[in-house]
Amino acid sequence: MLVLKSIVLAVVGLTSTVAAAACCSAEKRDVGGLRSDFALLNTAVKYNLGNITAYNGGVDNLGPLVTAGQLVSTVLTKTTADITAHAAFTTSDSITMLIEATNTLALLTNTLNALNNKQLLFRAAGIHTVVLKSIQEHSAEESEMYDQLVAKATNDTKSSFRGLQDTLKQLYDIVIKAYSA
Coiled-coil segments, which residues (predicted)? Predict the structure, then answer.
């Protein structure tokens, strides 16, 4: 009887927890989930960077590049959706997310530099227009992510998020211009 009572209490407790999570407003969330999104984004960007760096020309080893690019897009879409669904950030949340975005910007900078360095190889393989399209898509997706970060940020951190966004846009513009020439 005691075991049955324990099971019933556990089920009731679990049901209450699930119901509470489903009904709670976004205000009750912390940025832990967003930090996990950024950790996953950083992993995807590192994977993409590794594949770009390893590319030595030709069309035979494009599979990993395509897969890595698609992974980054998928994670960016999820991260942006999660930021959009989140309540406005507290001051602490804004600072935490600013640190996350700064770390990601460093990885994206390295990736864009690698893309710029590999431009001639992509041209020689006849795929630079495909790479350009992917770069443009990532630029738009990351711009949307930063728009959402700015929208959720506290007033005292909005300009810092915009500064990161502007830096990233400038880097993208350089690479897009090089690939478009």
Answer: none
Domain-located, residue 21: no
Contact 137, 172 (CB under 8 A): no
**Degrees, nearest 5: CA angle 134-135-138:** 85
Q: How far apart are CA 142 and CA 148, in angstroms?
A: 10
Structural domain that includes position 151: 29-180
42 in the Ramachandran plot: left (φ > 0), alpha (ψ -120 to 50) or beta? Answer: alpha
CA-to-CA separations, 157 to 102, 162, 166, in angstroms, rounded? 13, 9, 14
The CATH code of the domain that includes 170 is 1.20.120
Site of tokens 């960077």: 49
Give pTM, 2 decimals: 0.81
**9 burial type by CB count under 10 A (0-12 exposed, 13-18 middle, 19+ buried):** exposed
Rounded to whole angstroms, the Cα distance separating 158 from 94 reads 9
Long-range contact pairs involving 48-53 (C-beta distance under 8 Å, separation at least 24): 48/72, 48/111, 49/107, 49/110, 49/111, 49/114, 52/111, 52/114, 52/115, 52/118, 53/114
Counted domains in the chain: 1
Q: Is 103 within 8 Å of 40 (Cβ atoms)?
A: no
Is residue 48 within 8 Å of residue 107, measured between CB atoms? no
Domain for residue 88, yes or no? yes
